[in-house]
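Priority: medium. Attachment 1 of 2:
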């Protein structure tokens, strides 16, 4: 029981400490891209992508780090 309580105390301490340090850290910078495709003049498709540029506070709170999402390969403007 003592070890479990110590584990819970440590988890709370770790969470509070990381939250405090993250509040003093820089922002997480994300690049977002939206692509709209029109096929045949009437069908519209949307695709979104995001990429992490600067980790910022997510270095301290990695569970908040967003995952990169890429656009389908081979897309060019005006294609």
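Attachment 2 of 2:
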């Amino acid at each position: 029981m003592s070890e479990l309580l110590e584990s819970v105390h440590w988890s709370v301490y770790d969470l509070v400490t990381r939250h405090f340090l993250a509040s003093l850290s820089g922002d997480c910078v994300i690049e977002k891209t939206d692509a709209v495709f029109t096929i045949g003049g009437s069908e519209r498709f949307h695709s979104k992508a995001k990429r992490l540029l600067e980790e910022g506070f997510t270095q301290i709170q990695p569970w908040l780090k967003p995952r990169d999402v890429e656009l389908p390969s081979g897309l060019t403007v005006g294609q």
